[in-house]
Amino acid sequence: SIVSPLLRTGYHFQPPMNWINDPNGPLYYKGWYHLFYQYNPKGAVWGNIVWAHSVSRDLINWIALEPAIKPDIPSDEHGCWSGSATILPDGTPAMLYTGIDRPDINYQVQNIAFPKNASDPLLREWVKPGYNPVASPEPGMNATQFRDPTTAWFADGHWRMLVGGLRGARRGLAYLYRSRDFKTWVRAKHPLHSALTGMWECPDFFPVHAAGLQAGLDTSEPSTKHVLKNSLDLTRYDYYTVGTYDKAAERYVPDDPAGDYHRLRYDYGNFYASKTFFDPVKRRRILLGWANESDSVTHDKAKGWAGIHAIPRKIWLDPSGKQLLQWPVEELETLRGKPVSVSDKVVKPGEHLEITGLQTYQADVEVSFEVSGLEKAEAFDPAFADDAEKLCGVKGADVRGGVGPFGLWVLASSGLEEKTSIFFRVFRGGYAGKPVVLMCSDPTKSSLTPDLYKPTFAGFVDTDLSSGKISLRALIDRSVVESFGAGGKTCILSRVYPSIAIGDKAHLYVFNNGEADIKVSRLTAWEMKKPLMNGA
Ligand code: DQQ
């Protein structure tokens, strides 16, 4: 084959073969976590979409079951698209999802399915009641842009759910539907929220604790703070705002009036069509997302698979109230082997330090950096204030800086012909004199293979650098690097396809390409074991 089998991920979610996209209907039921996802049973490209189904005790080891929801009623016979689970008061899950009911155009309706046998903890079989569909496009609505129902929530005698849509050419919206019995759904006159951003795919709406508490809330629990997320098909990124849900007015109001355009993202890399759910066992909210390949379609077909999911992340509101924090679920740590640590190492300008004593193609790395001072920091050019990605495109890992670029070279070949750089770069003179911290993933040197898509990803990190400290965690898994900056303030997932830095030829380094010393106060790296992964 033209692609090394060693590039198939080891501990990120994927089925043994074929195409996967959005996570669907995640839920916890009778001792098992359930994950459904968009799946093509017939190949490694999008099409023939069914809901594949896997179960897990810990969100890390997965067992594949038969597809749960397949086209077999008139209102989904041309595709079972994305949707969400709601746990009803009697404990039974209900699944709301989009069906394609015409072959010619993507005419979209919303359907409902229930477990055939609620006493089966594996929820293997699903039935679709005869009253489907439960919501159809009405005159004046764009029937081809009407999909992805949310988890429903209950308040004041009614269930409510959202469906993503588009009005005119540009207004993305979250239609609001109400129901007393979970069967008859009526659209509210105005959407819960909308903005001039293009179509909203996969909306998600959930309460969070206001005080920076890490605990999650069930979707129906009242709260003073909510999060609304949507996936913009125009940019292929997931954006969210933090705001208030006004139940009486049936509206959501973002705290920052510019928030809809301010562009906070769950992840500044390859991460789309995500969805959260409430885990009643550990009382946390968990975020799941899809990471597409950035390899060529020819390679995808040759490999016979395409698409993975990010490691499930716990999410909660930052104490500032301005953004979310994200961290890989603690269960991931059960895959860690023997640690290798480095402490109090200074990396001088232009130098790098190799981390040895473990295999690093499938690893978890946590590092705390200390910057000696900000005197040498480059001046911030306000022209880049809204465009971290552009700034990183101009100032990649190999462009010498003042304070930074410093960080990790991962999946690097011993001669450094190939390396993926995950790093920070600090600038002077941001808003109100605050230093600006940029976090980047620079894959431009990640592979010698020609014709790969190698996008540079970046986000700003809203962190207080007065202590001089900043942390980075990188989950390295053969063809994916999932990075968490400053304790999960800024996250970047990248897909890379090295041609040399594969298997035991992959190396890990700390680098400093600035003019100021950088101290590694502590770095710990673990080889990661392979979990049960759907039988592959
Ligand atoms: N994927 C699904 C849609 C959704 C899109 C189709 C997002 O329901 O809008 O596979 O990736």
Automatic annotation (TrEMBL):
Keyword vocabulary terms for this entry: Cell wall, Glycoprotein, Glycosidase, Hydrolase, Secreted, Signal
Enzyme Commission number, as recorded: 3.2.1.26
Pfam families (UniProt xref): Glyco_hydro_32C, Glyco_hydro_32N
PROSITE patterns the UniProt entry points to: GLYCOSYL_HYDROL_F32
Cited InterPro entries: ConA-like_dom_sf, Fructan_Metab_Enzymes, Glyco_hydro_32, Glyco_hydro_32_AS, Glyco_hydro_32_C, Glyco_hydro_32_N, Glyco_hydro_beta-prop_sf
Domain of life: Eukaryota
One GO process term, biological-process aspect: carbohydrate metabolic process
Subcellular locations according to the entry: Secreted, Cell wall
Record keyword Nucleotidyltransferase present: no
Domain Glycosyl hydrolase family 32 C-terminal: 331-527
Catalytic reaction(s) noted: Hydrolysis of terminal non-reducing beta-D-fructofuranoside residues in beta-D-fructofuranosides
GO molecular function term, any single one: beta-fructofuranosidase activity
Domain Glycosyl hydrolase family 32 N-terminal: 12-328
Presence of the UniProt keyword Glycoprotein in the record: yes
Record-stated family: Belongs to the glycosyl hydrolase 32 family.
PANTHER family according to UniProt: BETA-FRUCTOFURANOSIDASE, INSOLUBLE ISOENZYME CWINV1-RELATED
Name under which the protein is recorded: beta-fructofuranosidase
Gene this chain is encoded by: LOC102708029
